[in-house]
Write a structure and sequence with these properties.
Blueprint: H1 4-19, E1 27-32, E2 40-44, E3 54-63, H2 65-71, E4 82-83, E5 88-95, E6 108-111, E7 114-115, H3 121-124, E8 135-136, E9 148-151, E10 157-159, H4 165-168, H5 174-186, E11 195-199, H6 205-215, E12 219-224, H7 227-235, E13 240-243, H8 249-258, E14 262-267, H9 272-281, E15 287-290, E16 309-311, H10 318-329, E17 337-341, H11 345-353, E18 360-364
Parallel strand pairs: 11-12, 11-14, 12-13, 14-15, 15-16, 17-18
Antiparallel strand pairs: 1-2, 1-4, 3-5, 3-9, 3-18, 5-6, 6-10, 7-8
Helix pairs in contact: 5-6, 5-10
The chain binds zinc ion (2 copies).
One zinc ion (ZN) binds next to helix 3.
């Protein structure tokens, strides 16, 4: 008669042979070894926090389109081999000796994913997203599509109580980027009777349309090539939903609705076509805010009689993160997410590549 205990022992021995380690546990992480190689699940060591560092046990990690750009080898800054994932949320697991006074194990948190140098003029203002020496998880250091994440300091941890980590994960990167763009480039530009055009209502766009509805007097026009996403946008309060794609009438429809009062456009796609559509739709002194890293090129001929502006913000500040986490905790907007097991990461990335996810995809180990 083989007992449970013996079976466990045998399994331990097998694991030891296979992984060279004792114990039935093996820590998995979604890793990319070099550019243009597919993502693999690999065993990694548990990180050990030193000084101010904190280890977070990840229970939700948002999957961003940038993960695909990393796999496809399109970003120069990336340091391979690497665990991808930069939208981390979970529970504080281990705390370095110097952080013991500020954070407790077991705290439910969402993590700001970019660690600045802390001393440059941008970092001193909390704009660690602009720090030229910053290190981002999932880009230059191991990221959050894993069981544990090493965080450089407790100042990157934002406690949550109402939200689950699977929902909160998307605030990091997606949420903070959207909020910061709206706060800095769209609110100052909008007025009663103005319109904001949102191109692409996926993982970021669906958050954007809700925040625009809450924080600006503008009416929202949403364009997407996917009818399901447009229906979702309408449910979330969008006034005008337009099916995009190759139809030549898209630009006309937008102009018919917004005329010269389209005060801002947020482009979550960023291809040649969407940049052109966005820029051409803008009214007087309108702002084109480009967030989608679609690699598109916009031909510009100045001076411009409409004096339009183009900006391409990256993420948001630590303060922006605090504000968007507060808004989400107060349920001022909904985060639509589809959750998957970390083992399904390959499938999830393909779904994102072919725009099959409605809302945000989140993996949990
Ligand atoms: Zn991202
Ligand atoms: Zn800095």
């Amino acid at each position: 008669l083989i007992t449970e205990f013996q079976r466990g022992k045998e399994r331990d021995n097998m694991q030891e042979k296979r992984w060279g380690k004792v114990g039935i546990f093996s820590l998995k992480a979604a890793r990319v070894r070099s550019p243009r190689e597919s993502v693999i699940l690999q065993d990694v060591d548990e990180p050990e926090p030193k000084g101010k560092e904190v280890v977070v046990r990840i229970t939700g990690s948002g999957v961003c389109h940038s993960d695909l750009h990393i796999i496809d080898g399109e970003l120069e800054r990336v340091k391979y081999p690497l665990t991808i994932g930069h939208e981390p949320s979970g529970y504080v697991y281990k705390v370095g000796t110097e952080a013991a006074d500020t954070v407790r194990t077991g705290e439910k948190v969402v993590v700001y994913p970019t660690f600045g140098c802390g001393v440059c003029r941008h970092c001193l203002k909390g704009n660690e997203n602009l720090c030229q020496r910053a290190i981002s998880v999932g880009f230059e250091t191991d990221g959050s599509h894993a069981e544990y994440l090493l965080v450089k300091s407790p100042r990157y941890l934002y406690p949550i109580s109402q939200l689950q980590p699977s929902e909160a994960a998307s605030l990091s990167c997606a949420g903070v980027t959207v909020y910061s763009a709206i706060k800095n480039y769209i609110i100052p530009n909008s007025y009663p009777g103005s319109f904001v055009l949102v191109i692409g209502v996926g993982g970021l766009g669906h958050i954007a349309v809700q925040i625009l509805g809450k924080l600006t007097p503008a009416q929202v026009i949403a364009v997407d090539v996917d009818e399901r996403k447009l229906r979702m946008a309408e449910e979330l309060g969008v006034e005008y939903a337009i099916l995009g794609g190759k139809r030549s009438s898209v630009a006309e429809e937008i102009t018919r609705i917004g005329g010269n009062d389209i005060s801002a456009v947020i482009d979550f796609v960023g291809t040649d076509e969407t940049l052109r559509l966005g820029y051409d739709s803008l009214g007087i002194q309108g702002n084109l805010v480009v967030i989608g890293a679609g690699g598109g090129i916009l031909e510009y001929r100045g001076p411009d009689p409409k004096n339009r502006k183009i900006t391409g913000p990256i993420m948001g500040s630590l303060i922006d993160m605090k504000e968007i986490v507060e808004m989400a905790e107060e349920k001022k907007f909904l985060i639509k997410c589809e959750t998957f097991n970390l083992t399904e990461i390959g499938k999830v990335l393909e779904k994102i590549r072919y725009s099959e996810i409605v809302g945000r995809a989140v993996v949990h180990p």
